[in-house]
Amino acid sequence: MHELSLSTLSTPVPATLSPVIQVEDAAIDLGGRTIWQKVRLAVQPGEFLAILGPNGAGKSTLLKAILGLLPLSAGTITVLGQPARRGNAAIGYVPQRRHFEADMRIRGRSIVRLGLDGGNWGLPLPFLQPHKAREASMRVQGAIDLVGAAAYADRPIGELSGGEQQRLLIAQALVTRPRILALDEPLDSLDLRNQQGVAGVIRQISRETGAAVLLVAHDVNPILPAVDRVVYVAHGQVAVGTPQEVITTETLSRLYNTPIEVLRASDGRIVVVGQAEEGID
Asked: Which of 123, 196, 252, 254 gets the highest tally of CB atoms within 10 A of its CB?
């Protein structure tokens, strides 16, 4: 594996910080095929990392391994000093985009509230524990305010735009006040304006709460101003570093083991050109 580690960055991470996620020589095999191997990664509090790469390279697989949803075939992953495990309350997870039908009448606020008590049987009974009900309502409102969704949180979710729905789903993941926010292709099927808007909200959340962010994406351009580092997955290998370090002709050609050209437009956009069958964005 060719990796640009934390130690190679131009601005070193302070030694006093302890990583919230530590991946050491990790590998995953699925269906008899090695998806990736020898992955090393340390994620600091408040960092925003984008997980990039072509379709089928193992981006979502890496995220699910950190979530404890998939077992490793080699190496270790620790989250907040403990082995990665399913259902870690310290992680707020937004899975691949859900679709809400136009006639769904559930309020956006109720969708956010599911992040708190969606795993409970029955409905909450606020008259039995009024202080807990008040606290829950305050936390829901706080998450809604954090993503800037107060203006439409009480409208039916089916009436909202894709970007508005996605902000409320992020609020649902934030309502437990997680230390890590994991998002699997949250910008998929959104237009460019909403992609940039949602990415900006996530960056603001990371700065205000200190939560580390892992975001799986196909295209780095809408999130380029927000990310601190990228994790680029291709051909069973992973490169980690700043966008300027990783998304280069030299590094991507090495990862793909084929000539890849990285072009930078005058407006800052990045274009990666390679073999069409690779599905490179």
From this structure: 252
Instruction: Count the Cβ atoms, other than its own, within 10 Å of residue 223.
Output: 25
Q: Are 246 and 240 in contact (CB under 8 A)?
A: yes
CA 106 to chain centre: 26
pLDDT-based confidence at residue 126 (cuts at 50, 70, 90): low
Q: Residue 202's closest CA among 221, 219, 186, 220?
A: 186
Return the structure tokens found at 41: 């990664």
Q: What is the pLDDT of residues 207-250, one digit of tens each?
A: 989 999 999 998 899 999 899 999 999 989 999 999 999 999 99
Distance CA 29, CA 47 (A): 28
Task: Tokens for 173, please give them.
Answer: 């993941």
Q: DSSP secondary structure string, 197-235?
A: HHHHHHHHHHHHH--EEEEE-S-SGGGTTT-SEEEEEET
Residue reference for tokens 């829901």: 140
Tens-digit pLDDT profile for residues 160-205: 998 999 999 999 999 989 999 999 999 887 888 888 888 999 999 9
Identity of the amino acid at 144? I
Q: What is the number of other CB atoms lying within 10 angstroms of the CB of residue 259?
A: 11
- How far apart CA 183 and CA 92 sit, in angstroms, is 8
- Terminal-residue alpha carbon distance, the chain: 21
Query: What domains are defined for the chain?
Result: 1-90+178-248 (3.40.50.300), 104-176 (no CATH)
CA count, 13 A, side-chain hemisphere, 187: 24
CA distance 196 to 41: 26
> Rounded to an integer, what distance in angstroms lies between the CA atom of residue 83 and that of residue 64?
14
